[in-house]
Input
Amino acid sequence: MTTAGLHCEQLSRRVGDRLLLDGLSLSVAPGESLALLGPSGCGKTTTLRLLAGLDPVSGGRIRLDGEDVTHSPAGERQVAMVFQSYALYPHLSVLANLELGLEVRRVPAPERRRRIAEVLALLQLEGLERRRPAQLSGGQRQRVALARALLRQPRLMLLDEPMSNLDAQLRDQLRPELRALLHRAGHPVIHVTHDQQEAMGLADRIAVLEGGVLQQVGTPQELYHRPANLFVARFLGRPGINLLAGEAGVQLAIRPEQLRLVESGGLPARLLRREWQGSQQLLWLDTSRGELLLLAAADLTPGEQLQVTWKPDDELRFSSASGERLA
Amino acid sequence: MAILLLLPALALVAGVFLWPLLRYGWLSLQASSVLTGLVPVPNGGANWQRLLADGRFWQDAAQTLRFAGLSLALELLLGLALALLLHRPLPRRGLVRAVVLLPWALPTTVMALGWRWILNDPFGPLNGLLQSLGLPAYGFLSQPATTWLFTVLADVWKTTPFVALLLLAGLQAIPSELEEALRLEGAGPWQRLRRLTLPLLAPYLLLAALFRLAQALGVFDLIQVLTGSGPASSTESLALYAYLNAMRFLDFGYAATLMLGMFAVVLGLSALVLLAQALRRRLAEMAP
Output
């Protein structure tokens, strides 16, 4: 077993009688990027704060490069974090924001200057050194926060909803840049998001959390095509997965893009409404097995009678009782 | 048109602030005392000449500044410490905050009477404490050299909670991630206070300083009840001297002159504090 990177075992956090995180075990290798994905209140930010040392652990262990840091103070873990709000010091210039941490750690002045110049060039922040955070755009603030985190020379990099304060267009533009940058830095990266597109775009693997319990970890492809349970199946994918009644005790599910319209021999369906999405239309169909969503290129009008079919192999089968996927 | 909308507010300011000021200005140029039968008679600036030569005015000015300076310094220091303490997660935080505010809620005269009893020689509790330790009783309120320190003590006791509350509001306006970010960078509590909390709290410290300075320079009720300006006028403030001239000596002309003199001192000091702040900000902007 390798010791490099992050390993956490049975990590728990309890506040009063509420269990915010229940026995989380995860490993992230150096250079690997893991997304913690889940709805609000699922325990993803709690996990980040435990790893950073900002909140005390109620149970379990955290090891970083082989060292047990479960109870180490936040400042001694060599863990960097980019906060959702970016948490730039508002009274300081960009330069002073980057320099403060180095000063606090008593890095000598010539080395401070060299390292700051390096990171300013890497993140294309030259020329903004004297600006205050309030005078920067959202994308620039994110880059300053990232620069500050990189200067920490972290053994683990944490990002809390790094894109949520940016507009959609900027997000699409920055995602590949951020991914390349994080991979190049070579430390384990964990980033928290509730946006599956961001998770798939930034991460090598995704861990889906719900109710403080880890549901599944895997590559985006694994999670999408072989979800461990109904929650993961429904949480991933836009438009959402279709649920169909199956035999007793079985819940069937099928992705909208795996449904096809046919001339004859399919399940009869009536078009309820549609949403135009450019190259495709999103259709809501009423069938004897329930309401179905599907994507089609054809131009159809509500009220039309259609027939829909799919390959039985594409069906996902879940236990109605536990929600676990059946083989 | 815009001026029409401002008119009611301007009228109010003129009525409660400008008019009394102008009236004082006019009165300070009159002889208006028992000698003139309380009828104002112009005396060609004689009041102002008297003020400049009045040793008691200058001594009271020095005593007032001494009182305000030490009170302000202690209140800011203790208020900051108390605010930092109250900002931490405490059990029953609401109750603790309410209790801390109690001294400030007490009327000054009541509070001053309480301190007069505590400091009583030889029967007060403080002298009781000294005596039980085998020390001689001390005349807290009868030593011209040290009595002013006990007027400061009473003022600090009463107004520190107010300063603490103001600074606590400032602390709560600082997002907690800023402190957490600095913690992750390896900064200890002292570094976080010096490099992050204090700079962000500066506007609140300035506000507290201005409030307290203006109030302390006009101190009247606390000293009137606690020491009655004594012993030997060693705790007399400018406000008390002006009151003495108006209400005891019935010399309204000179009392108005004293009031304006005091007003000039308060205004000058406040301007100085604001100027220092503007200068500090300008220097901070010029630094890289």
In short: The two ends of chain A are 30 Å apart (CA to CA).
